[in-house]
Hints:
- The chain has about 290 residues and is an alpha/beta fold.
- The chain is built from 7 helices and 8 strands; from the N terminus they run βαβαβαββαβββααα.
- The protein has one domain (about 5-225): Rossmann fold (3-Layer(aba) Sandwich), CATH 3.40.50.
- It has helices spanning about 15-30, 45-55, 70-85, 120-145, 190, 205-250, 265-270, and strands spanning about 5-10, 35-40, 60-65, 90-100, 115-120, 150-155, 175-180, 180-185.
- Strands 1, 2, 3, 4, 5, 6, 7 and 8 form an 8-stranded parallel β-sheet that branches.
- Adenosine-5'-triphosphate binds near residues 14 and 16.
Amino acid sequence: MPQIKILVTNQKGGVGKSTLSANLAGYLSLEKKLSVSFIDFDKQSTSYNLIKKYSDHQIAPHKAGLIYQQNSNLTLLEARSIMRTRSGQSDVVIADLTWTFGLPDTFLLDFDIVIVPSSNSVVEVASTEIFLLEYYQKNSIKFNLKRQYVIVTPSRIDADNLSNLEFEGLRFIETCSVGPVVYRIPHINEFITKGFLCHSDNPVVSENFLEFGDFVYQKIEQKITESQESKRVEIVNKSVDRQNYENYFKGLPQVDAASRVRPVIASSIEKAPKSTLLDLIPAFLRKK
Ligand SMILES: Nc1ncnc2c1ncn2[C@@H]1O[C@H](COP(=O)(O)OP(=O)(O)OP(=O)(O)O)[C@@H](O)[C@H]1O
Ligand SMILES: [Mg+2]
């Protein structure tokens, strides 16, 4: 399978990035038997320490606290070099990173799937929308070409407060979805000291993390299918080129370029909804 790169990020602290990323690694390793490399870009190494705490897995965790320099392109080069050298041959690479504007947002484009945990407070929903819309606005061509998947994950949500889970402002981005809610776990330390949450002996906790993991796994499968389809079509195109070459020397007519099978990626871009300027304004700022 092609290696799938997943980034768990948000500029907001304490939203559950490390808990989600480490437990996603646990789910993919234990439940789906995938080989997983894990890169913790945050200096406090929370997710690295969580993974190190358990022994029932084959995950390769790496500590790689980024140093933010004045010239942020150096940080970008450093982050990319860490991704290249630490990803190994694993099926999936998961990176945990607190987003900062010290890093150019082109780094986000290096990933197949970006998971953005967010609470459902009005302020945080708005700041998550602004973060993603700014990124999309600046990079929409590459974003659409890559068909990057963005999964907004409502995280640490109180079961009795299930409001503001729509993230309306992001609806027009075809490959953006709101994933399953990850509920607030009271006394979470009692659970995370024992092992990955998808294998918790509390069925409510394990079910919630299995649901989150299953959702991400579906997206991984979709990404793999898409990359295989676009490869298959590329090969077809190449053989048509060769046919033209042979026809030329035999004096036969050439194959009309318009009748060639077109790469899947091109047709999916055509399907993408056309965004209007209004779409790029966060929902809470639009006039009702
Ligand atoms: N679903 C949850 N229910 C209850 N507590 C949670 C949940 N997810 C995370 N926490 C707790 O919230 C705190 C912050 O979580 P975590 O470290 O995963 O967030 P973070 O976004 O990585 O934070 P930071 O910005 O500091 O890196 C931790 O104490 C963690 O145990
Ligand atoms: Mg963290």
